[in-house]
Design a protein that fits this description.
The complex is a heterodimer of chains A (346) and B (281). Chain A contains 8 helices and 19 strands. Chain A is α+β, with helices and mostly antiparallel strands and 346 residues long. In chain A, the strands form 4 sheets. A 6-stranded mixed beta sheet of chain A has the order 6-7-8-3-9-10, sandwiched between helices. In chain A, strands 13-12-11-14-19 form a 5-stranded antiparallel beta sheet. In chain A, strands 2-1-4-5 form a 4-stranded antiparallel beta sheet, with helices on one face. Chain A is elongated and about 75 Å long. With 281 residues, chain B is mostly helical. Chain B has 2 domains: 41 residues, no CATH class; 180 residues, MetI-like (MetI-like fold), CATH 1.10.3720.10. In chain B, helix 3 crosses helix 12 and helix 10 runs antiparallel to helix 13. Classes of the chains: A alpha+beta (346), B mainly alpha (281). Chains A and B meet through strand 6 and helix 2 of A and helix 8 and helix 9 of B.
Chain lengths: 346, 281
């Protein structure tokens, strides 16, 4: 059992606050992704959990044990580094065996575990090589195998796929998901790639400016962003936002169209809809088409609504050319509203 | 000019320099050592080897290197580790540690003589503190081991900094991530030093050890100042045969011995600290 509990963890470097009082609980065997743009504090949080960074305040608990005073080696974790950190002076075998030798496991056990994890990561033919003789993808596999061989309660991964080319990343992503699900460890995975986050995570913690904005299941994060930031960060293309004015009677004025909205005390809100949640028809928000991008499965339209960009995903057989004016009707159950000042969902 | 020719042209001055000032004298010395009136002869080598001081000189030289170099290596490794961990003031400390490097070996020999001689600082201090009643003759001819120890101390003081400077720059090349990975995977500070620092430092260790060992084989001025001829070393004997005994042939034979053990030591270090192909940082 390795539940991870983070209580009020904060970190500042000099006058810069990298993390503001983070509270987060990661369940045993859960795959948690920390997602955010660079500089949002996700790697700092991971390094605090690993023990490579000391929090300025707060507590870290792993498996019911408070660990923030312990060195990394006493925390029962394994880690995959962004640049892999495969030791150049050791063979692949010795790299995978490194942690096991530190634990002083018997020789047969080390051999068994190295062979098993190497087979799992399909690198059994590389065991005698040095890191300098491996490709980036192979080094990545060695780094993962080294972590898995520890049979740890917790695996921490710091942007492990970011240095791979696109095709390899896709392949490794699927493989990692399978391997980690079978290993029954709790995983914390840091990435700035939202597709990676969506595809791997049991739960995503979206981070921004040193805070966790939303921690929820991927579909929930996508469908019901807790904040405007989440909607604009996740999804490709991201959510569309249009300013809305109170029109009375529970109605809100959005680009000249009155839509049903929430009962809110404010006079102004922000209307939000995902590009794929609009239908082209006789009624709806008037939009002038600027760019048409046929993508095969569907067509991506970049339109202008009240001087702002508005993207819509439409069926690929729709005949449309730049300059046309369309009526885009939002699907009522997919419309979201945000408070323009706090940026939070209403 | 043809781009393939250019590098060789640029190398030409250095090559000429090496030929005139290293290869030519070397050939001259070898000829002196191995030729006599009737051509090739081993007579000078026999003269050298049969002299009672030869074995002593060779023995003391090797023993000095075997004691001084490991002491310097350990001192330099600990100093370099400390300096590498410093967040600020790193270069000031490096400069301070390197001050003895600026002194000639003769000057540092004299400094340590001023400390150890009968009217030196050490005796004054001990008498002043009332530990001894009258000054002791530390560096007398009966006390060859005291002279040896004094030479070791003087050499360690004088030339450890060069080893440290090489090791500090070598440690700077090791990425921090390897230490973090080692830490996560269970290595404490000592294990990290043994399993990460030392192996990844092999190229720097090689350079530093070759440099220091070769210079230790050539130790001369410090030994002469502190021990006169009580502690014979190869370089001292070369000097003796050349200038006191006026026999350039035997002096050259000594020079060849120093060259031979230098080559042997270099080959040993190249082999012992080799980095397998593909295992470089």
């Amino acid at each position: 059992m390795a539940e991870i509990v983070i209580k009020k963890v904060a970190k500042s470097f000099g006058g810069f606050h990298a993390l503001h009082s983070i509270d987060l609980t990661i369940a045993d065997q859960e795959f948690m992704v920390l997602l955010g743009a660079s500089g949002c504090g996700k790697t700092t949080l991971l390094r605090i959990i690993a023990g490579l960074e000391t929090p300025s305040q707060g507590e870290v608990w792993i498996g019911g044990r408070r660990v923030d005073g312990l060195p990394p080696r006493e925390r029962g974790i394994a880690m995959v580094f962004q640049n892999y950190a495969v030791f150049p002076h050791l063979t692949v075998f010795e790299n995978i065996a490194f942690g096991l030798r530190m634990k002083k496991l018997p020789r047969q056990e080390i051999e068994r575990r190295v062979t098993r994890t190497a087979e799992l990561m399909h690198i059994e033919q590389l065991l005698k090589r040095y890191s300098g003789q491996l490709s980036g993808g192979q080094r990545q596999r060695v780094a993962v195998a080294r972590a898995l061989a520890m049979e740890p309660d917790v695996i921490l991964m710091d942007e492990p796929l970011s240095n791979l080319d696109a095709l390899l990343r896709l392949e490794m992503r699927a493989e990692l998901k399978g391997v980690l699900a079978a290993s029954k460890t709790t995983t914390i995975y840091v990435t700035h790639d939202q597709v990676e986050a969506m595809s791997l995570a049991d739960r995503i913690s979206v981070m921004n400016a040193g805070k966790i904005v939303q921690a929820a299941r991927p579909v929930e994060v996508y469908r019901n962003p807790a904040a405007r930031f989440v909607g604009s960060f996740i999804g490709n293309p991201p959510m569309n936002f249009i300013p809305a004015k109170r029109a009375g009677d529970g109605k809100w004025q959005v680009a000249g169209v009155a839509l049903d909205g929430p009962q809110a005390s404010r006079d102004r809100l922000e209307f939000a809809i995902r590009p794929e949640d609009v239908t082209v028809g006789a009624e709806g928000i008037p939009a002038t088409v600027r760019v048409v991008e046929p993508l095969g499965v569907h067509t991506l339209l970049t339109c202008e609504v009240e001087g702002a960009l508005f993207r819509a995903v439409v069926e690929s057989d729709l005949a449309v050319t730049p300059g046309d004016t369309l009526r885009l009707a939002p699907k009522p159950d997919r419309v979201r509203w945000f408070d323009p000042e706090s940026g939070m969902a209403v | 000019m043809h781009p393939k020719v250019l590098p060789y042209v640029l190398l030409l001055p250095a090559t000429l320099f090496l030929l005139v000032f290293f290869v030519y004298p070397f050939v001259q010395i070898a000829l002196l050592a191995f030729t006599g009136a009737e051509g090739f002869t081993l007579q000078h080598v026999q003269t050298m080897a049969s002299h009672w001081k030869f074995k002593a000189a060779l023995g003391w030289t090797l023993l000095l290197a075997a004691v001084v170099v490991p002491i310097q290596l350990m001192l330099a490794l600990s100093m370099a580790t400390i300096v590498s961990k410093l967040e600020s003031g790193r270069s000031s400390i490096l400069y301070i540690f390197s001050i003895p490097l600026g002194l000639s070996d003769l000057a540092s020999g004299i400094i340590w003589l001023a400390i150890f001689e009968q009217s030196g600082f050490l005796n004054s201090l001990l008498v002043g503190l009332g530990i001894i009643e009258r000054p002791i003759l530390f560096l007398g001819y009966q006390n060859v081991w005291v002279i040896f120890a004094a030479v070791v101390i003087a050499e360690a003081w004088r030339a450890t900094a060069i080893v440290m400077v090489i090791l500090v720059s070598g440690m700077g090349l090791i990425p921090k991530e390897y230490y973090e990975a080692a830490e996560v995977f269970g290595a404490g500070p000592w294990k990290r030093f043994v399993k990460i620092t030392l192996p990844l430092l092999r190229p720097s260790l090689q350079t530093a050890l070759i440099l220091r060992t070769l210079l230790a084989f050539e130790v001369f001025a410090v030994v002469i100042t502190l021990g006169g001829t009580t502690l014979p070393v190869l370089m001292g004997e070369t000097f003796q045969w050349q200038f006191a005994l006026q026999d350039r042939h035997v002096a050259s034979a000594y020079a060849m011995v120093i060259l031979a053990i230098s080559i042997a030591a270099t080959l040993f270090y190249l082999w012992a600290l080799r980095v397998p192909k593909g295992a470089k940082i």
